[in-house]
Amino acid sequence: MVFQSALRTLLPLADAKERGALMAAFYAVSYLAFCVPAVIAGVLVNLVGIDATAGGYGIALLLLALLTGVRTARRTA
């Protein structure tokens, strides 16, 4: 849902000739957003173990969600 919303927001901003490059950049950034945390978690599993890595990953996600909620609330207020 967020993915589609982002595309609906971005695509009208680009000229027809630029949409292919925009989509390529969008997909590259999207894949990086998913793979970089997985690679970091894979490295951390070897260093601190799976339990600590999963806990840290969960805490990081909660903090990012909280930050997003606060920023959204400030924008709408």
Task: Summarize this structure briefly.
With 77 residues, this protein is mainly α.
Topology diagram in text:
Layout: H1 2-10, H2 19-48, H3 50-76
Structure, described:
The protein is mostly helical and 77 residues long. The protein has one domain. Helix content is 86%, strand content 0%. It has 3 helices and no strands. It has helices at residues 2-10, 19-48, 50-76. Helix 2 crosses helix 3 (50-76). The longest helix has 30 residues, at 19-48. It is flat, with a radius of gyration of 17 Å. The mean pLDDT is 91.
Helix percent band: over 70%
The pLDDT mean sits at 91
Structural class: mainly alpha
- Principal-axis shape equals flat
The residue ranges in which pLDDT falls below 50 over 5 or more consecutive positions are: none
Largest sheet entry: none
Please supply descriptive tags for the structure shown above.
flat; 3 helices; mainly alpha; 77 residues
